[in-house]
From TrEMBL:
UniProt keyword list: Monooxygenase, Oxidoreductase
Keyword Oxidoreductase found: yes
Domain named FAD-binding: residues: 2-330
Domain of life the protein comes from: Bacteria
Gene Ontology molecular function: FAD binding; monooxygenase activity
PANTHER family: MONOOXYGENASE, PUTATIVE (AFU_ORTHOLOGUE AFUA_6G14510)-RELATED
Protein name: FAD-dependent monooxygenase
Matching Pfam families: FAD_binding_3
Signal peptide range in chain numbering: none
Keyword Disulfide bond: no
Length: 372
């Protein structure tokens, strides 16, 4: 069967590989003129690593996180995520990768010639037993299966579900990668008033950091630039935080407002389906968006190995939708707790985290690690 995948992000590249492995003829249409190398890190949990291994990308370089400390913005240790237990039960750790390494590895396996750059899809319609796809350039093509992997503002989703604009979380996120000395294998996440900050070690003596703060959507940057804005936002937090921002090159700092969408009851119609952020965009609080996209890809591949396309898509959704939607909701709830500015709620939140029985913490993690 012929498959067109719209979007060459992590979800689209992975889907291309999985459907090729299932014996199909794949083309990926990407609107950008080149595959952008986003300079940030990515936490890949055992469920994402399992999917990567199935796609033949299990050896993508990354650094295992040995300890992950959750602290209050005043520096007090609230909890330690049970990562050693994760490895014992699921055979792999939480790994932090450069996004560019992951994209490069997927692109290498898929083959650059499979990705058609500068190809923006603007619409599609069923045409007999095929799907008729229209590109911005005015070109058209037909395919047996169309997969929308075109991110949170997906054109394919818009046509399929017409569910409007994404939902703004009320927060913005600065993030970057920089050289910085951090205790080997130890990662930190501080929760504060109206925001959070995280620092994760990467494999080459650098670290990935992110800082989230409540801000209005589309807020303009100050004339002093992103670095000064981020420094100011976290000036009164533990001193390692302003220090890591200070050590960062201004031009390498990304800033994005954070959005998600409420979960929906279907991702497919006829011979068209969605994967990754196009299907279930989530706030980054569970660090699972890319892991879920990889799982979608691997599952779609195995679901489309036999039977009709419609049956395959039904199986894919049945195996993936509940799990991914649950993480969308969980991430949304966590983001609200992290973003609280109410001292009472913050006090209670920190108390609960500090005293949560291990079984509760473990149940939350475990629900995300189960195979689809
Ligand atoms: C701050 C932050 C931190 C995160 N941290 C983590 C983490 O630690 N772990 C984790 O697992 N996830 C994390 N995520 C989530 C993760 O980044 C995303 O879920 C994942 O990258 C989604 O990949 P995707 O391929 O579905 O979408 P995208 O990466 O958005 O890719 C979509 C692609 O489609 C292309 N496109 C769009 N429209 C069209 C069109 N009409 N025609 C053709 N091409 C089109 C775009 O150019 C783009 O290349 C984080 C996200 C954020 C914002």
């Amino acid at each position: 069967m012929e498959v067109l995948v719209v979007g060459g992000g992590i979800g689209g590249l992975a889907t291309g590989i999985a459907l090729r492995q299932a014996g199909h003829e794949v083309r990926v249409l990407e609107r950008a003129a080149k595959i952008a190398e986003v300079g940030a890190g990515l936490g890949i949990w055992p469920n994402g690593r399992r999917a990567l291994a199935a796609l033949g990308a299990g050896d993508t370089p990354g650094l295992p996180v040995r300890r992950l400390h959750l602290r209050s913005w005043r520096g007090r240790l609230l909890s330690e995520v049970p990562l050693a237990e994760l490895k014992r039960r699921y055979g792999s750790e939480l790994i932090v990768m450069h996004r560019a390494d992951l994209q490069g590895s997927l692109l290498e396996i898929l083959g650059r010639h499979t990705v058609q750059l500068g190809s923006e899809v603007i619409g599609f319609e069923p045409s007999g037993s095929r799907v008729h796809v229209t590109l911005k350039s005015g070109r058209h093509c037909d395919t047996d299966l169309l997969v929308g992997a075109d991110g949170i503002r997906s054109t394919v989703r818009q046509r399929l579900l017409t569910d409007g604009e994404p939902r703004f979380s009320g927060a913005t996120c600065w993030r970057s990668v920089t050289r910085f000395a951090l205790e080997e294998g130890t990662a930190f996440n501080w929760w504060g008033r109206g925001g959070e900050f995280g620092i994760f070690p990467l494999r080459d003596g650098s670290v990935y950091w992110f800082g989230v703060q409540n801000r209005p959507s589309g807020e303009a940057e100050s004339a002093r630039g992103r670095k000064a804005d981020a420094m100011e936002a976290f000036a009164s937090w533990p001193e390692v935080i302003p220090a890591v921002v200070q050590a960062t090159h201004e031009g390498s700092i990304l800033r994005n407002d954070l959005y998600d969408r409420p979960p929906v009851g279907r991702w497919s119609r006829g011979r068209v389906t969605l994967v990754g952020d196009a299907a279930h965009p989530m706030l980054p609080n569970a660090a699972q968006g890319a892991c879920q996209a990889l799982e979608d890809a691997a599952t779609l591949g195995t679901s489309a190995q036999s039977g009709s396309i419609e049956e395959g898509l039904k199986m894919y959704e049945a195996r993936r939708r509940h799990a991914a939607n649950a993480i969308v909701s969980q991430s949304h709830r966590t983001a609200r707790l992290v973003g609280s500015t109410n001292p009472l709620i913050i006090g209670l939140r920190d108390l609960l985290i500090a005293h949560a029985p291990r079984s509760v913490v473990w149940r939350q993690l475990e629900s995300m690690m189960q195979p689809s």
